[in-house]
């Protein structure tokens, strides 16, 4: 049942409700929507048709190229949002994971509804005669885990029943295989079914899969005893310090642990997909396998699994884990690590688990493992050098040592870092890039090194602040190898890389492609996006000859192009000449505009200053056909999300493009352009702390200063009616919206806060970018909490929350208690709790009702007064008022 509670204080006076909007179509709008008038007074409701039509716009398919780039797999998405019955199914909430017990899978998975194959030189969406549909699997099935085989011969995917009325019974996912040449699919593994709670399946080579299956002979799940065996006890008699943020869905008792172990346990099956009737070969005993990854040469496997003891204090990602090296048949060679339960990782940024982390295969070697180990106990407050060590281990050599019965082969030190290591990008024995960074200083360092000559050490390539987007040199492009891995793309075998970046500048983002010389550290621009388009390059497409080096002459890349009025389309750009001096393009997609009714909406990137001199930006949207001189100022929605910075210069940098297409999500504030509103989307709300300052110590002051600057700019342009400005946000943006109504109510007529946290004493061990605890900064926690200001909030505030919110810190209790506090002080407020919804809302019924609530709140308090007579208020009855109180 949808739960709505409202507290109606005296209505705030809203001036100018009959102001014209957009192209005049909404001028002198009626105070009651004709479409809304017929809606019932209870249950799920829908927003006005002009919003509904945009939400129901057909989605674009997903696209993925075959490994040899000759084919495109088109993945059809469902025509609308998932139905409420799909997210209403029972789910288990265990160790921070939500499990669909019927399917032995994660719950609430998205899905595809169909697969089709088209030649890569065919424009997408392709006509029916050019598409080869993948057939043979059950009609109407939902599809997941879609992958190409390494050589592109096959396409693997899973099927499951929707479980709706008239559908087959639900059960564990079934693995299928389609022939990419014919599109015909067949089931794999016989009667076996997958367990995808942690791992689904992975390719070992072109013809071999290893799949995580429900163990054969699996008994019934553990049932909870009707009578408790005793009380629930947590103990810290040792006095050990263990601070954790407010995780959700944790284990509560031993029974929870048994159920978690039951549904998380799988059996690994090795399968040759060429054998049509085979059920595969079990290669390892049942365990809670979380990852099974083949070496690039397919001769070894890295297997990871969870084990007891479990914890009621932390989620599964911190449970004990074993990392083991096997041969391809599942025979253990060596245990790389047995990591204990990690309940005491510090809450500060750059904290990490002790022992090997980031374990992976080198992309440029047949079978060499790489991992990182912290030398500071995972605690960034410990001063030590080096802070991290990067190790490598050759799997073949380790296997030989194990067979010969000698001493275990010791790993080799690849490099050390004094900041927190972020990993390695591989190329060959002559080149790799090593990354390290530090949150407190926002410092990021990239090194070059020669893995084959480790004694030479590393050399600094870039040393910069990762907040400074203007100095970003870009990221190196990679190329595909014959093993299916991706390595740094050297150009013509030289020490030159292709670097792609966003090209941020005071004029806006202009993505680029550079040829970067690693020795001189000089970049030569090969290509850059040009107005009126926003373009960016993607994957290298001319790397299908794995033995040939990437060359500028003949270089092919994917290119995305969009404009303010044209949706993103994909092209193939081909360069020619030794200096890539000329280029040609082939169009790959031709998707229609998803919402042509808003094609002519007006968009402008605004630049303005805060009172302390910090430069701010925001994207202003105006309805199609709107003319300020003719139509006058509009009701305006300000929708934002605060962010922390270490410098005013970084906070004021431009991070957007005026030429970007404005995609409208199903809960986007820009939906209200169709209702005649102006929208300021994503205005800068920077919280700056330079040096050793803490940003949240002046959070309220900086928040209100940013809001004041935004509203002042909008009003000065003549597009915004200052009496009809509303503020809204989701999650930390909701926290912001509530704070703004508390601290600068003169700026806003109403607020909308979705899935927020409002009482920071309920998140005592840090939140967002706050690393201090409540006991270290009690005044800051209290001052930032709008819950503590409930007696000061007088403007209407709409609270919306998913009843099953699983985000850290944003329990539904936050909205419920905040509403009670507001109601207790006579504030005009309303709380809407969405059944079965998490931190983000997915079901069609939930999304549409959220939009309905937001629309009615805006119309009643900061809009045109087009109210629904079926709107339920605090009396529990439909509101039959035909106009707003004056």
From TrEMBL:
InterPro entries: 6-blade_b-propeller_TolB-like, AB_hydrolase_fold, Peptidase_S9_cat. Gene3D superfamilies: alpha/beta hydrolase, TolB, C-terminal domain. Residues 709-863 form the Peptidase S9 prolyl oligopeptidase catalytic domain. The keyword Disulfide bond does not apply. One of its GO terms (cellular component) is chloroplast stroma. It is found in: Plastid, Chloroplast stroma. Its main location: plastid. Residues 218-244 are annotated as: Disordered. GO terms for molecular function: serine-type endopeptidase activity. One of its GO terms (biological process) is proteolysis. Residues 234-244 have a biased composition (Polar residues). PANTHER family: GLUTAMYL ENDOPEPTIDASE, CHLOROPLASTIC-RELATED, SERINE PEPTIDASE S9 FAMILY MEMBER. Serine-type protease active in vitro against the LHCII N-terminal. Cleaves its substrate on the carboxy-side of Glu residues. This is Probable glutamyl endopeptidase, chloroplastic. It comes from Tetradesmus obliquus (Green alga).
């Amino acid at each position: 049942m949808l739960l709505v509670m409202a507290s109606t204080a005296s209505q705030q006076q809203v001036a100018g409700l009959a102001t014209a909007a957009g192209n005049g179509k909404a001028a002198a709008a009626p105070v009651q929507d004709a479409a809304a008038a017929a809606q019932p007074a209870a249950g799920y409701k829908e927003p006005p048709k002009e919003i509904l039509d945009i939400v129901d716009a057909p989605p674009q398919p997903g696209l993925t190229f075959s490994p040899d780039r000759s084919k495109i797999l088109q993945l059809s998405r469902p025509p609308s949002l998932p139905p409420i019955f799909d997210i209403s199914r029972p789910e288990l909430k265990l160790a921070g994971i939500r499990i669909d017990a019927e399917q032995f899978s994660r719950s609430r998975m998205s899905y595809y509804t169909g697969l089709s194959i088209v030649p890569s030189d065919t424009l997408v969406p392709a006509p029916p005669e050019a598409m080869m549909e993948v057939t043979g699997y059950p009609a109407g099935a939902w599809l997941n885990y879609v992958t190409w085989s390494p050589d592109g011969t096959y396409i693997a995917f899973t099927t499951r029943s929707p479980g709706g009325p008239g559908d087959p019974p639900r059960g564990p996912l079934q693995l299928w295989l389609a022939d990419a040449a014919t599109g015909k699919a067949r089931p794999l593994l016989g009667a076996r079914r997958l367990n995808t709670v942690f791992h689904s399946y992975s390719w070992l080579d072109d013809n071999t899969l290893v799949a995580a299956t429900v163990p054969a002979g699996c008994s019934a799940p553990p049932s909870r005893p009707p009578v408790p065996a005793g009380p629930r006890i947590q103990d810290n008699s040792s006095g050990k310090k263990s601070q954790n943020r407010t995780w959700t869905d944790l284990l509560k008792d031993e029974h929870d642990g048994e159920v978690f172990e039951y549904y998380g346990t799988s059996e690994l099956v090795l399968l040759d997909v060429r054998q049509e009737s085979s059920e595969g070969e079990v290669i390892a005993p049942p365990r809670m396998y979380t990852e099974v990854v083949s070496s690039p040469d397919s001769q070894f496997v890295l297997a990871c699994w969870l084990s007891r003891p479990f914890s009621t204090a932390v989620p599964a990602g911190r449970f004990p884990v074993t990392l083991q090296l096997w041969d391809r048949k599942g025979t253990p060679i060596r245990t790389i690590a047995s990591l204990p339960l990690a309940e005491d990782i510090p809450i500060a940024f750059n904290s990490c688990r002790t022992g090997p982390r980031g374990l992976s295969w080198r992309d440029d070697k047949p079978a060499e493992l790489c991992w990182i180990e912290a030398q500071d106990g995972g605690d960034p407050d410990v001063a030590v050098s080096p802070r991290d060590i990067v190790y490598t281990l050759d799997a073949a050599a380790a296997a030989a040592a194990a067979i010969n019965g000698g001493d275990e082969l010791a790993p080799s030190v690849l490099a050390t870092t004094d900041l927190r290591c972020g990993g390695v990008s591989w190329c060959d024995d002559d080149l790799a890039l090593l990354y390290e960074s530090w949150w407190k200083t926002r410092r990021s360092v990239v090194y070059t090194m020669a893995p084959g000559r480790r004694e030479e050490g590393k050399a600094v390539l870039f040393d910069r602040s990762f907040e400074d987007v203007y100095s970003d040199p870009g990221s190196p492009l990679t190329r595909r190898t014959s093993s299916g891995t991706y390595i740094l793309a050297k150009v013509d075998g030289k020490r030159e890389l292709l670097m792609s970046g966003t090209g941020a500048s005071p004029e806006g983002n202009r993505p680029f492609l550079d040829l970067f010389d690693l020795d001189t550290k000089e970049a030569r621009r090969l290509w850059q996006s040009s107005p009126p388009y926003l373009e960016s390059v993607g994957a290298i497409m001319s790397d299908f000859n794995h033995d040939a080096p990437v060359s500028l002459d003949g270089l092919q890349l994917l290119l995305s192009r969009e404009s303010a009025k044209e949706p993103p389309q994909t092209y193939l750009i081909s360069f020619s000449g030794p200096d890539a001096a000329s280029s040609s393009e082939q169009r790959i997609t031709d998707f229609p505009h998803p919402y042509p009714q808003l094609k002519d909406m007006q968009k402008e990137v605004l630049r303005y200053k805060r009172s302390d001199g910090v430069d701010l930006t925001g994207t202003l949207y105006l309805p199609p056909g709107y003319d300020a001189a003719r139509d006058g100022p509009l009701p305006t929605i300000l929708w934002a999300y605060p962010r922390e910075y270490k410098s005013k210069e970084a906070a004021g940098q431009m991070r957007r493009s005026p030429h970007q297409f404005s995609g409208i999500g199903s809960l986007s504030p820009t939906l209200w352009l169709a209702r005649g509103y102006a929208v300021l989307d994503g205005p800068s709300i920077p919280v700056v702390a330079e040096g050793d300052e803490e940003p949240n110590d002046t959070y309220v002051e900086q928040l209100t200063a940013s809001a004041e600057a935004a509203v002042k700019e909008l009003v000065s342009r003549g597009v915004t009616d200052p009496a009809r400005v509303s503020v809204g946000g989701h999650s930390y943006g909701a926290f912001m919206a509530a704070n703004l109504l508390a601290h600068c109510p003169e700026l806003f007529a109403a607020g909308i806060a979705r899935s927020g946290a409002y009482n920071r004493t309920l998140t005592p061990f840090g939140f967002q970018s706050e690393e201090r605890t409540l006991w270290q900064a009690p005044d800051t926690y209290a001052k930032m909490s709008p819950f503590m200001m409930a007696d000061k909030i007088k403007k209407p505030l709409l609270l919306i929350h998913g009843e099953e919110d699983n985000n850290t810190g944003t329990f539904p209790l936050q909205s419920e208690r905040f509403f009670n506090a507001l109601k207790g002080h006579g504030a005009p407020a309303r709380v809407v709790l969405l059944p079965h919804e998490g931190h983000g809302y997915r079901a069609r019924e939930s999304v549409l009702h959220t939009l309905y609530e937001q629309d009615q709140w805006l119309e009643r308090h900061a809009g045109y007064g087009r109210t629904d007579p079926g709107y339920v208020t605090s009396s529990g009855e439909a509101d039959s008022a035909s106009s707003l109180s004056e």
